[in-house]
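tokens incoming
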């Protein structure tokens, strides 16, 4: 998820049971120009694997070059974005617009598949317009062109994130292709995951928004249904803050993290005004102090968490935050 799936988020997702995590979407043009910020997306930590890095663009050769860089950086899978509905991306001919340009989309997949040895996956929406079934027409062609798996988020680009994901389309896609299909959209619980897997025949589910500030959703989907204690929530949030500050630098992390406070503090019975207070504090150190004051036992949970993490990664990575908004 652009603007969310920073390295700290992905590492946390792996710790809580995700079988595969994915980077934010990375501009192939940025990679090809050697843009330093964009290259930052290709820093991969040892405990993220297996990791997919997602690229977006509209030119087959530039996408192929980007895919080679992604493979060299150590990604286990190259994912291609044919789902982003955001104008900044679609106006360049990338993202969801490619669903209306099947020939170009197939040339992109073929060029990327030819360029790298790791598997290629494609992430797509149902189509551009509401009610569109374009994903069913294009899916088999993308497989023929070299996609080893397809992930479907069955909303239209026009829908953005409104309404519901129509997983009857996922079921139809599963029937049409002989590669694994991953179901994305509204997977928020074990019950939902089980029903989507059972009714679609998909091989896997992808969890997006439900995991924002809530890694316990992943644990619940993997079968461990335990509400986190206040101490556990505070400790995970502090760890996330520390890791993100290391990744993005204190200044950028301070703004980036604000949206996460509300997401995290939905659990742990924190007083209502508390979230608001956190977003108004000037430094991350103060946010930590406030969290520890509200949940003193978090200190011990945090110590245990940090002891279990791989060490030796103490440098500031200065990674970028995506400016693009979705898929
Ligand atoms: C903030 C945000 C950013 C997203 N960024 C991407 C992205 O970069 N690439 C992508 O393929 N999908 C992206 N998506 C879409 C998700 O991968 C997913 O398909 C969609 O949110 C539906 O799943 P969910 O209901 O589990 O969130 C994004 C979604 C959100 C909310």
């Amino acid at each position: 998820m652009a603007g969310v799936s920073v390295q700290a988020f992905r590492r946390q997702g792996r710790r809580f049971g995700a079988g595969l995590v994915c980077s934010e979407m990375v501009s192939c043009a940025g990679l090809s120009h050697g843009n330093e910020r964009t290259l930052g997306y290709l820093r991969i930590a040892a405990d993220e694997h297996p990791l997919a890095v997602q690229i977006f663009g509209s030119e087959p050769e530039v996408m192929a070059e980007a895919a080679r860089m992604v493979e060299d950086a150590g990604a286990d899978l190259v994912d291609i974005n044919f789902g982003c509905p955001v104008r900044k991306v679609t106006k360049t001919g990338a993202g969801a617009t490619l669903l209306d340009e099947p020939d170009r989309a197939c040339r992109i997949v073929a060029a990327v598949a030819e360029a790298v040895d790791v598997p290629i996956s494609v992430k797509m929406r149902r189509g551009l317009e509401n009610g569109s079934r374009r994903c069913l027409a294009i899916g088999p062609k993308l497989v023929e062109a070299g996609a080893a798996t397809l992930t479907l988020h069955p909303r239209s680009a026009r829908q953005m994130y409104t309404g519901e994901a129509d997983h009857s389309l996922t079921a139809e896609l599963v029937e049409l292709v002989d590669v694994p299909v991953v179901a994305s959209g509204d997977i928020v619980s074990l019950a939902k995951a089980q029903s989507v897997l059972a009714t679609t025949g998909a091989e896997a589910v992808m969890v997006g928004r439900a995991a924002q500030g809530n890694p316990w959703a992943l644990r619940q989907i993997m079968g461990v249904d335990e509400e986190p204690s206040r101490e556990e929530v505070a400790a995970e949030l502090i760890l996330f803050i520390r890791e993100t500050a290391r990744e993005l630098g204190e200044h950028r992390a301070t703004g980036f993290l604000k949206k996460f406070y509300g997401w995290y503090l939905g659990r742990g019975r924190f007083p209502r005004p508390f979230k608001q207070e956190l977003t108004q504090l000037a430094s991350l150190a103060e946010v930590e102090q406030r969290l520890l004051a509200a949940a003193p036992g978090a200190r011990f949970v945090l110590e245990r968490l940090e002891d279990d993490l791989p060490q030796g990664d103490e440098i500031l990575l200065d990674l970028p935050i995506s400016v693009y908004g979705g898929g």
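note: The CA atoms of residues 115 and 209 lie 32 Å apart.
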